[in-house]
Amino acid sequence: MWIQQQGLQIETAAYIDEQGNALRDDFSINDEELIEMYEWMAKARTFDQRAMKLQRQGRIGTYAPLQGQEAAQIGSAFAMREGDWVYPSYREIGVSLVKGMPMSNFFLYTMGHLEGLAQQQANVFPVQIIIGAQCLHAVGGAWASRYQDEDSVSIAYIGDGGTSEGDFHEALNFAGVYKLPVVFVVQNNQWAISVPIHKQTASTTIAQKALAYGITGIRVDGNDAVAVYETMKAAIEKAQSGEPVLLEAVTFRQGPHTTADDPAKYRLPDEEARWGEKDPLERMKRYITGLGIWDEAQDVALFRQADEEVTEAFSIALAEEKSQVADVFENVFERKTKQLEEQQLDVKGAEYSWR
């Protein structure tokens, strides 16, 4: 019997439509949590917009914006438990903020400070630049967690482009074979830099790739924060019981891939306008306003407060003493090897003579 993907029926989970109307009535999230989730989304967007401006001013380095992906990030992070671990790529600022990362650390990171990657405050691994490598790390973390009999789930975040990398497939295969407590969250934002999703994969969906590795897959409207939250909550429960999950959140990157990119060279305005109507913040705002638990005055106050928090975070980052090249050697091993000590001395000597 031939196996054809046309025979697969992959539905996209959704709880709220684009106008902010409820599509179902089995929400587990309460009004207070809805407001808190929206507040995190607003904070993430405010940070993102300020970071873009600061990069254009030359005050921070290259930055990967998340605008348009707030629901996918905040909704999934909000569903996590305190002991769950996050293995991010370079765009998961919203996730990391919810998990307890200080906002100033992200500014430090973009300014080249080593402390920007010091993440002892939260269960968040350092930013991973190598595409897909975080998936393998998450599998390793999940395996260690199970070995040590810990009640935690590892969550790896990756973009649609990253699913074309070998590390992604190796991680899913390993997770499936060993039934590890891990969730792979694919933020399908339609573009891998300038490459559209249909050139990344011939699969109708990314979620269906789970079937090849014997794990559970689900597709969710990534601009619907409630749908992402509810789906992620169920995914974590499945992973906790030894059922790995591949979760595809269908969303859209409203800005460039990074500040070194120009989407106008490969993306049509019509596509941006169409996805702009699906904006995750506007959808959530319409929903909670319709419930009578939010109004415009509260919204103005929220964004004003978020702006103040971002300003304070950048001020904290500016006050930090700049990292030196020699400091890099302090972050390799708990105890430096003799070779590292010699290399560090060489660097310090070179810096001294250069000055």
UniProtKB/TrEMBL annotation:
Its cofactor is thiamine diphosphate. The keyword Translocase does not apply. Residues 39-323 form the Dehydrogenase E1 component domain. It catalyses: N(6)-[(R)-lipoyl]-L-lysyl-[protein] + pyruvate + H(+) = N(6)-[(R)-S(8)-acetyldihydrolipoyl]-L-lysyl-[protein] + CO2. It is an enzyme of class 1 (oxidoreductase). Its EC number is 1.2.4.1. The keyword DNA-binding does not apply. This is Pyruvate dehydrogenase E1 component subunit alpha.
